[in-house]
Amino acid sequence: MTSEANTPVLRNCIRLPLAEDELLEVTAKAKDYAIMHGAAMRSKTAFSPDSLNFAPFVLVPSSFPRKEFEKAVALQPIINRLMHNVAHDEEFITTTLAETIKVDEFTANLFNIYRKVLAHGFTQKISLGMLRSDLMLESGCPELSPRAFRSKAGADEAGTAAAAAVVGTETDGTVGGTGEDKEKKIKKEMVAAAAERAKNDRRELQLSQATTEQKMKAKGVPSAYCCWKQVEINTIASGFGHLGPASKTIQRFVLSELGHADKLKNMPQNNALAGLCDGMVKAWDIYARPNAVILFIIEDVSYNICDQRFHEFYIRETYPHIKVLRRTLSDVHREGKLGQNKELLLGQQEVAVIYFRAGYEPGHYHSQAEWDARYLMETSLAIKCPSIHYHLAGTKKVQQALAQPAVLERFINDPEEIKAVGKIFTGLYSLDDNEAGNASYEMALKTPEKFVLKPQREGGGNNVYGVDIPDALKRMSRVERSAWILMDLIHPPLTKGYMVRPGAEMPPQIVDMVSELGIFGVVIGDADNIVHNYQAGHMLRTKLSTANEGGVAAGLGALDSPYLIDSDDEEEQ
Ligand code: ADP
Ligand code: MG
Predict the structure, then answer these.
(1) Phi then psi for 122, rounded to 5 degrees?
(2) CATH number of the domain that 398 lies in?
(3) What is the mean pLDDT of the chain?
């Protein structure tokens, strides 16, 4: 992904660059702080179950508009309810995925489990949804919020335009005058005034200081933000419940070390770990069997170990009477069976709640054994996070279907809520083999740079971007295309800062970055009732502006947390 030359830049939380000696010292301290506070991962290149590297992080929090952050937080319970209703709409899921499952084997396997579970009736009617709605600011939004940014390309142009406007008045001869000298003097004064005005305009923009929305629009200066768009919604293995808050902990430490403790008030509270774990415990309470355990389904090797162990440790420390087990799908196949009332038993242990941190990609199912284990769990009495219908509701294809006009009305009653949710979708297009799908195909071939092509996969690294899209599409048959969806590329504003990575050169350099905010939500209920529904914290991931994707575990992204800015804030100090 490349950012255009005039991509707006959000102003920084503090003035950068830092002096080199200060930067070296605080970065070294922050690395240790990160490891010692569990902002860490296992190394992929030198894996050892006995050691950790700090997870890549951004040294100072990246700015994010407060208004948009608050909007995202406020909307989450509505998104929770939407997804809960979607998950329980058999007809919608079935028709939406009908074409996809003909060509996408993985989604078809999930759907087969769903079909079998439907045929026998759900043993457990309650589902636990722990969602994460991922979003990016869209800098191409037509509304403007003028003060909170600095334009890279816009400043000089605006200054020149202002000068030209004044000189234009002069050459138009509209100023009048009585004698030649006086005329010359007036001209001179006007040119000087124009230059001064241009200088001031430039300064005004550089300092991100006051100017009106109309003025900015007239100058053609791009907006740094105004709206955000949803990138995707995750219904399975929504990670960073620990690493989200941990990022804030590191950056809070760094800001304080740098003498900016006064800025901490603009870093929003983040109780994601507690919010998510309490969700599991609420489900455990509903299951109401004091000896039953919470089961985490894990990958064969967990690199992102802190983001799972901290959940386990939080539960064990806060609710010592609840035991947590970790098992792979293969383990469950070996050890698991159903009891008399279809309770899931691992040996003698009854399982109350299953939290899937694996099972979202084909590589997690090595053989039929793992699929059988998934089915066993789905048919059991345990409360699943997610249950199979929630998993299917989180597919890209369902997200694309939800973004179509009038679809939200099926799931949300309140017209204001429909309007608010409708606004978060950017263009999402079906590639099914029909008139609309074929038109999207043609559109993608014609202007691929505007789009991202997505399959029904999670976990990063699966999408195709921009100029690579035509080749990818041409390699597919007409029907194969229905395994994919097309989406408008979102163009987030830039931030500038230091990205700190294990093994990277010291001191870090200032780089251009873009961020993706994830808002967590917890929803518990059955087809008829929702018993718990709340927003549960957030996480911010930041990547180089030149990178297509920003997975932290994949090594491209970095932990970050939002520094909330208002449109009338003063320049950073
Ligand atoms: P996954 O399920 O693999 O996480 P995503 O839809 O979240 O798939 O895409 C992965 C990454 O690609 C995102 O985290 C984001 O960085 C980038 N991305 C996805 N969709 C868009 C988009 N519409 N515009 C810009 N970047 C996008
Ligand atoms: Mg994603």
Answers:
(1) -70, 120
(2) 3.40.50.1760
(3) 87
Query: Based on the number of CB atoms within 10 Å of its own CB, is 172 exposed (0-12), middle (13-18) or buried (19 or more)?
Result: exposed
| Domain around 356 | 63-141+228-245+269-426+513-565
CATH number at residue 467: 3.30.1490.50
For the cut 50, the answer to whether the pLDDT of residue 210 exceeds it is: no
Residues in the chain: 573
| Residue 40 placed within a domain | no
Over the stretch 217-242, which tens digit does the pLDDT of each residue have? 445 554 455 789 999 999 999 999 99
The secondary structure element, H or E, covering residue 441 is helix 435-446
For residue 570, the CA-to-ligand 1 centroid distance in Å is: 33
- Residue 434 and residue 429: Cα distance in Å, rounded? 12
Identify whether residues 300 and 444 lie together within a single domain: no
Please give the full DSSP string across 369-412, using - where no structure is assigned.
HHHHHHHHHHHSSSEEET-HHHHHHTSHHHHHHHTSTTSGGGT-
Q: Is the pLDDT assigned to residue 191 strictly greater than 70?
A: no
pLDDT tens-digit readout, 551-573? 787 768 999 999 999 975 655 55
Residue 133 CA, ligand 2 centroid: distance in Å: 9
Q: Whose CA is nearest to atom 17 of ligand 1?
A: 549
Distance 205 CA to ligand 2 centre (A): 34
Q: Which ligand is nearest the CA of 1, by number?
A: 1
The total number of structural domains in the chain stands at 2
What is the pTM assigned to this prediction? 0.87
Nearest to 469 by CA among 439, 437, 492, 446: 446
Which segments are annotated as binding site for Mg(2+)?
458
Give 182 or 344, the one with higher predicted confidence: 344
Q: List residues forming the annotated binding site for ATP.
A: 396, 454-463, 465, 487-490, 516, 543, 549
Q: Which residues are annotated as a binding site for substrate?
A: 308, 541
Pocket-forming residues, ligand 1, beta carbon under 6 Å = 134, 231-232, 452, 454, 457-460, 462-463, 487, 489-490, 516, 549-550
Instruction: Report pLDDT digits (tens) over 499-530.
Output: 999 999 999 999 999 999 999 999 999 999 99
Measured in angstroms, how far is the CA atom of residue 458 from the centroid of ligand 2? 7
